[in-house]
User: Fold these one by one.
Assistant:
Number 1:
Amino acid sequence: MSTLLSFRDVWVEYGDRIIIEKLDLDIAAGSFVSVVGPSGAGKSSFLRLILGQEAPTRGSILLDGVPLKPECGPDRGVVFQRYSVFPHLSALRNTMLGLECAQSPFTARLFGRSRRKAEEEATAMLEAVGLGHSLHLYPAQMSGGMQQRLAIAQALVKRPRILLLDEPFGALDPGIRADMHALIRGLWQEYALTIVMVTHDIREAFTLGTRVLALDKRRHDPHAPHRFGATAIYDLPLRNRTEPTPPSITIDAIGNN
Ligand SMILES: Nc1ncnc2c1ncn2[C@@H]1O[C@H](COP(=O)(O)OP(=O)(O)OP(=O)(O)O)[C@@H](O)[C@H]1O
């Protein structure tokens, strides 16, 4: 598999506070990377770096070998745990909005043939995530699982190559989570996505990922906790490409140091 994203000696610092230090890793196209680590380790910061919402204070991030642009392009989509969808828009309008913004950045409105095309694409995407019968429902009329399906449709309708998931299933019941796991693995394969998912659920990380990346501090100074940042302390490739469960770990590949 070819390298899609490369982190080269990446640091994130706020003033004298180091959040991420010396991060060196490659992410292969088509991989499903689960990112785990304690609270505050910098997992969301890691996603923001890929999204282009945040720039490294030192080091570089390359996409296809070219430095990542500082803004979020259509090649990257994101789904958060909550509040990804607009409450005042129906499922269909929520999903169309991304296409409207991309094609008509000033008014976010399309007309005639281009509007019909966007409507068809949004409808097909909603069908792909299992919301084909809920096109005209508003988020308040949907369950948490349905809202997350909608958020995924909204992210995927622009056909990103990279899908970033920040604890996307954290607020869902266990039964719904299992359905969402099956959905996301199906979409990952069908749309040939590269997925980077932050999760606090270690089982979810191993069930879904082709690779589990653990971010944490390698060094601690109890008198100055801000002095050291997190980095990839474990980087585990899994033999987990097509079968959802059970995952298996290649023991010889533990650690990247
Ligand atoms: N804009 C900012 N200014 C200063 N500190 C920040 C800023 N954004 C994040 N941080 C700090 O960076 C650290 C990492 O935050 P981040 O949200 O990436 O952690 P996380 O691993 O995703 O945490 P959690 O699992 O609790 O969501 C935290 O200590 C946070 O307070």
Number 2:
Amino acid sequence: MEESFQKLMGMEFLITNVSLVSTVFTVLAILAGVLGYLYAPYWGVRRVPGPRTIPFLGHLPLLAKHGPDVFSVLAKQYGPIFRFHMGRQPLIIVADAELCREVGIKKFKDIPNRSIPSPISGSPLHQKGLFFTRDTRWSTMRNTILSVYQPSYLASLVPTMQSFIESATQNLDDSSQSSKKEDITFSNLSLRLATDVIGQAAFGVNFGLSKSQSISDSISKIDNGQDKNDDEVSDFINQHIYSTTQLKMDLSGSVSIILGLLVPILQEPFRQILKRIPGTMDRKVDRTNQNLSSRLDGIVMKRMNDSERGSKNFLSLIMNARESEGVAKSVFTPDYISAVTYEHLLAGSATTSFTLSSAVYLISGHPEVESKLLAEIDGFGPHDQIPTAHDLQHKFPYLEQVIKEAMRFYMVSPLVARETSREVEVGGYLLPKGTWVWLALGVLAKDPKNFPEPEKFKPERFDPNGKEEKQRHPYAFIPFGIGPRACIGQKFSLQELKLSLIHLYRKYVFRHSPNMETPLELEYGIVLNFKKGVKLTVIKRT
Ligand code: HEM
């Protein structure tokens, strides 16, 4: 009896031990899984130098501490190529002109695509544009788009651009003549202007934001002269702006976006749940995206069925190209057409508007630059003579230097995201397939090796006959990116910027408003933005 009791006890002890051991093993396996999940992306790039990482957060606390300057700070410490962990995801940051040439041009075939940051991965509207499409689909799309960007098309846009510029700046007369000398928030004016210009050029739609009336007063015509009601257009724009500003790269986005940064595997399931819960940011973003997509699809379908769509805007041109090229037809399905057209609105408005505002802001603080610029603009000819596309390219060399220097000073798109398609060596480090390689254009633009006294605003540093320009590395200043994947809108936006500045400075000069903070505060979204806007006092030239 006692013997069998002992046996029983022994078995129970054994069973308890076995289950204890298996529990311990299960816990250890889970821990190993979590650690493996957290450290797997790090492992492949561990040899690239970088600061110590915190599990889950990576180097996000450094981003919180230094803001947009974080990459300059780290480049000083770790050199031209270093690791930065966006949550779990390591980025290989390239902060050297020659290495940018290596990634963007010499090794393009191994690094042809962009990595898709977590805020974008939930939005098909953003993914189907040129920016995030990959490999052969991207090259077919890009070739078709480039074929519509002929110099003659750009030149034909001058009168359209000019008329929007004129109506956007009409109200400035009132502000400059008022005895109280009212200040204006110039950055709002420039966003309305840039959105209208690109709206017309991309969709053939007049959003009517630049008109002297307020947005809700503005009357707009969509397509074939059909009037649409005002709310619809301003609603569309508000949604567009909302959708843009929600694409944050830091920790202020929606819950699923934050999870995407920390534990990417959880992002999609959480997004699916959260978008069904009223009041969450995920629900709002989802609704906005759905709304935008269906409106765009509506415009696209209407234009597709329109036999007389003409060829004055990007959307119609793409459709014409699609019909004449067999390959493009299978690639440019209606959802992709909506996405690239919307992408134009997104890529063309915030960037150009930011650049225009920062140029005017910088000129306002530098009277010597202003008088040299005024002399060039006045010297061109009578003030009612609208420059042609050719004039803009060749007859305003100082204006070009001013724009370049403004873009260098406040680089609107300071990071360019790329991803390796196979194992490749960059800067002496072997990077596995799938590594995120980001080019730090903003760091290059402030590197004293290429730009002595980088904190000074000196347009003359871009004088083609000057010593500084001649000595500079050819890829030290690349605000529109580099190589086959560089910006397609470069000429478009330069044309718009030059026309706008010429028109403005023919009539006015500007001074910083006393209500403006110093130094200018910036916000780090998908592109750089002003935290509180650019406020200026307008003075009419006599
Ligand atoms: C001041 C204005 C602008 C700046 C600073 C700017 C900057 C950039 C940068 C840095 C890139 C990434 C390039 C790379 O990966 O190497 C890019 C790509 C792109 N930009 Fe712009 N951009 C501007 C205006 C525009 C405009 C007006 C449009 C449309 C008309 C546009 C459409 C695009 C598109 C579609 C791409 C993706 C190209 C591809 O992946 O093939 N951008 N832009």
